[in-house]
Amino acid sequence: MKRVRSTELVLAGAGALIAHELGYGTAGLLPVAMTDPGHGHLPTLMDLLIPLAMFFGALVVLRAVRGQLREVDARRLVSIQVALFTALELGEHAAAGNALAAFTNPGVILGLGAQPIIAALIAGALRRAATVLREHRGELLLARPALGAIASIPPTAGLAETAKYLLPRRRGPPN
């Protein structure tokens, strides 16, 4: 068995949480679940894990563009997500007093069913982003601002003024 990379773990964790919300939302149990003592950790976990997954996803894309990393495999994500989701649900239901009730909960069943879809969407989005960046790499390299332009931004510049310094300037032929 291959080792689970931290990137896969974070992406699968975010996928498991997204499928959790999707499963409970589809079953109409989300409002009830959020008042349940076993689900009190979810807002904090989402606030932490989703931005972290976005960061790791960006790293995966950049490394794939450079040819330093193989793409994320949706099948591996599914297996990790199912394991994380199952552990999450057992823990939540144990905290609420009945761990075995997790397997009869419609939100859990729908969440488990959503795992392959979410994993395929995550892997597909990362693959597509890497492909687009590879295809437009030359254009992106030409459009990035020069270091001198960044250094010339006044420290008191607002967002709109900063954008003026960073946007590429294309000079055309004189009229």
Key words describing this protein structure:
mainly alpha, elongated
Explain what you see.
With 175 residues, this protein is mainly α. It is built from eight helices and no strands. The radius of gyration is 22 Å and the shape is elongated.
Brief characterization of the structure:
This protein is 71% helix and 0% strand. With 175 residues, the protein is mostly helical.
Please describe the topology of this protein.
Blueprint: H1 6-26, H2 30-35, H3 42-66, H4 74-96, H5 106-135, H6 137-143, H7 147-151, H8 159-166
> What is the string of SSEs from the N terminus onward?
HHHHHHHH
Please indicate the percent range of residues in DSSP E strands (runs of 2 or more).
under 5%
Q: Roughly how many Å is the radius of gyration?
A: 22 Å
User: What is the molecular shape?
Assistant: elongated
Structural class: mainly alpha
Number of strands: 0
Q: pLDDT average, as an integer? A: 78
So how many helices? 8
* Straight-line N-to-C gap: 66 Å
Helix content: over 70%
The biggest beta sheet, please?
none
Low-confidence stretches: none
